[in-house]
User: Fold this.
Amino acid sequence: SDTTSADALFRQRAARVIPGGMWGHLNAARLPAGYPQFFRRGDGSTLWDVDGRRYIDFMCAWGPNYLGYRHPEIEAAAASQAAEGDCLNGPGEALVELAELFTSMIPAADWVQFQKNGTDATTTCLTIARAATGRKKVLVARGAYHGAVPWCSPSVLGVTAEDRANLVTYEFNDPESVRLAAEAAKGDIAAIVVSAFKHDFGKDQQLPLPEFARLLREICDREGAALVIDEVRAGLRLNLGGSWEDLGVRPDLSGWSKAIANGYPLAAVTGADWLRGAAAQVFVTGSFWCGAVAMAAGIATLKVARRDDVVAHLERLGTRLRDGLDLQAEKAGLRLRQSGPVQMPLVMFEDDPDFHKGEVFCLAMLEQGIYFHPKHNMFLCAAHTEADIDRAVAASEIAFAALDPST
Ligand code: PMP
Assistant:
């Protein structure tokens, strides 16, 4: 690859002063060579890397880009608050208005607390559930991602067995495994944590089966435990009132982040009345948790989401993308695996255990200015247009042709 590109030069400088050049999920070393590490600009559904290459972006900053990069109304709300101040001795007025909006929009939310990152929110849910119940055990789905601190990090490096001693695992969508986990922890269950849908890295996505969702609710009711939905990734993309509203199953606690302030750093825990006392008593805080700019952005984001029926837009375009890709793949003699909700596309190939096809395909998309991910679910945003989708589908015709169906 081009060693004189701006991206290559930034990588060389970063490699000297940042361990590994970049940490965590945004390390471009996890993507095929050819993907940029550094970006300069975003606007609507378009992204530019530091070399000025332009992409129609289907990763949406891994979720936070919900309405479009630099959405004018969100930027105006954030700028107006920034002109007054952001991090002060306590929260701004925006805190109360944002809390009112959350509790009016989400039926399961009787109250809300705000944090910064998704991990803050999921971890706070566990703290509140344990404080309220006086119990230790938490049921979690095997392989689910809930954040990057010892209790939930996908890596065991730097983590002790004691950090996870009180977790009991079950399989998503497998009622029997949930019954067994609940039996094993009986009498000491503080919470069952579940993702809004199964979106494990490199796996087919799965929406929750109604009987699975209802069983989690039943067990929590029977045991006096808290049902915690991790909405960090799915939140506001499936249903503005909560991802399980259509199933008729309501959580006791939910953790939110990513989309809720359109890229400004904000997370939230929403909860039911019976957990209000515990939420008031636990000591949870952070130097930046009351930043008023992100809260102003959050208020504007929720209002636009509701006004513009963003979920319907994402569903419509997601269906157009899924159908278009399926058609092109079929024409090329390839079989795709597209799973989960259309507004969070995951495009994988049949007979592709090492993701080789996916990587060749995504690189061929990248070369045509379409930013796809070969293994992780992607995201649509309100700024995506039919023209964006049609350009991606047109590019896929060429990218599929780059794959030899006989291999
Ligand atoms: N839960 C889920 C489902 C997530 O997708 C993520 C982030 N990818 C987190 C929790 C953690 O959020 P954050 O990275 O903001 O701490």
